[in-house]
Each structure stands twice: as C-alpha cells, then as structure tokens.
Amino acid sequence: MTPAIELTRLRKQYGRRTAVDSLDLRIEPGTVFGLIGPNGAGKTTTLRMILDIIRPTAGAIRVLGEDPRRGGPALRRRIGFIPGELRLDGRVTGRRMLDFYATVSGPVAAGAIDGLAERLDLDLSRPVHALSKGNKQKLGIVQAFMHEPPLLVLDEPTSGLDPLVQREFLRLVTDARDRGQTVLLSSHVLSEIQQTADTVAVLSQGKVVAEGDVASLRLGAIRRVRVGIAASSAEEIGAQLGALPHVSELDVRGAADVVRVSATVEGDIDPLVKVLARHRVIDLAIEEPDLEESVLKLYGEPSRPEAGERDA
What's the pTM? Predict the structure, then answer.
C-alpha cells in the first residue's frame, strides 16, 4: 500500500543552521501519526516541507503518492491544514469565509460546516476580526476538516482551545481515522498524542530520536508526584521513599504533623504507591512533566548545534 507520507533523508538548512537533519518517516494511510518534541525540534519545518510551503535542501518527499513540488492545487485540495500560527482576520463572517474556502478546497457535504461548528460551539455569524484566539482556532479546524480530505496535517491544533473543546477536537481526529483519513498531528501536549496516535516519532534538534507506538516509547513513564502524609517524621518517610529504585528529585519536608513530599518517578509507580499505603494520605497529585523534559530524560539529547543554530 502506498504510504500517505514518505520522507527520505529529508534535510533543511538555513545557512549554517540545520533545522531538519536526514529525516526518514513513513506514515501509513488511515492512521494517526504523532510528531512530538521540544521547541526547536524541527516539527513545523518538517510540516511546511511536506506541504511545499518551503523547499528542502536535500532528500525526497511523497505525499499521497505525489511529489508536493509538482502536485499543485489538485494535491493541496486533498489536504486539510492547520498552521501552528493561525492568522485569520477580516470583516466577513466566519460563514462567508468558510464558504469561500469551500470553493477552493473542493466539495463540502451539505450540513458539514454547520455540524462541525455545532460540535465546536462556534458562532459562524460573527465577523472574523471580532473572534477570540480560541474561536479563530475553531474556525481553522472547521476549514481543515469540512471537506473530509484524505490527509490532515495539524500543527499544534488545540492552541487556545478550552479543555472541553480540546476533548471534542480529539473526537474529530478519531472520527477522521475511522473514516479512513490519515492524520499527521504535531503537538506539545503529550496527552493528545497518547489519546489519539497510532504511531509516534520523537524529534529532537531535527533528528528522530525514537519512533514506535505510544506504549513502546514509554512517553507516560515519567511522572511528578506531590503528596501530603499525616506523619510526624519526615526522616522516616524520606528514607522509605529514597530507597525506591525509580524515585528521583525527592524533596521531603515536615510541618505541623504533615509531611509534604515531591518526587519524580520514572517507570513503575507501584512501589511508591505501596509505601504511601502504609500511611494516611491527605492529598495526592500525579502529573506529567513538560514534554521537553520527558523527551530528554527518556531518549537523551543529540549533540547540540553551535550557538544560534536553532529551529524557531
């Protein structure tokens, strides 16, 4: 089966600065592919090359079986795109703007625009320039999804959206996959990738440092834990937790018969839970560290570029 996207030794340089370095990726049709990594990893540069917004320095790109440099408008109509920095303005209403995009992108099924707007709680009667950042983002989502293209390329698509709308967006992604569409999703939000992606590539400084399914990459294996324990001995709690093999960055402080603990747990959290079960737990919070920390702790960091050589 022809891959939806295939990148072969893709490279992009700006003078001495290497933004993408010998990148090989293959994205199968009908899947959700997550592209993640810290700022400066080369994610946006890669997406722009896939869409022929910028041209690579070296390497080959195939999108839906075609070279994007030669595919022209016919290929672009088969792609739905949300840029990382969406800029929408104008005095026309959201509906008129989407009606215009419909004439460019190709056939849009009757009721598709209204259905998407309802799911995202978007008022299409308001002028675009009067919309908030979040509502402009919703408009961009409707524009990308409304003609049900074979390929969706989404760069930080939930930026500015409230949590309820983010959840509905993830349902849209799942629905698209169920219809057989391919989704390339670039995100800083680890939970989005964990909930939707079939396959993930981790980028760091323009290189793929890991690729596979979410479970095998252990992207959720690092957690920060904060807990309050009804106990009088911070030393005793600290000794018990400090003996655990997966606990690091341990900070234990006692005050007024409550011991406050913060720690980072990498891997199996069960030993920590069993230690806490010996005590009366007053409060407990478990959260993921930021994506950059997760990537660098799990996979290390490729050799750093020279000063100033970073992909924005």
Answer: 0.78
Question: What span, in angstroms and rounded, lies between the C-alpha atoms of 274 and 35?
Answer: 35
Q: For the stretch 18-36, what's the b/e string if a residue is b when 16 or more beta carbons lie within 10 angstroms of its beta carbon?
A: bbbbebebebeebbbbbbb
Q: What angle do CA 67, 68, 70 make, to 5 degrees?
A: 70
Q: Which of 142-146, 220-224, 225-229, 239-243 has the lowest mean pLDDT?
A: 220-224
Top-ranked range on mean pLDDT: pick from 12-21, 139-148, 214-223, 287-296: 139-148
Residue 266, C-beta contacts closer than 8 angstroms, at least 6 positions apart? 221, 222, 246, 248, 297
3-state SS string for 191-242: HHHHHHCCEEEEEECCEEEEEECHHHHCCCCEEEEEEEEECCCHHHHHHHHH
Q: From CA 49, how far away is CA 57, in angstroms rounded?
A: 10
* pLDDT above 50: residue 305: no
Q: Which amino acid is at 68?
A: P
Residues of the chain with CATH 3.30.70.260: 222-287
pLDDT value for 58: 96
pLDDT surpassing 70 at residue 126 = yes
- Residue 309: pLDDT over 50: no
CATH tag for 5-217 (out of 3.30.70.1620, 3.40.47.10, 3.40.50.300, 3.30.70.270): 3.40.50.300
The boundaries of every CATH 3.40.50.300 domain in the chain are 5-217
Which CATH number applies to 222-287?
3.30.70.260
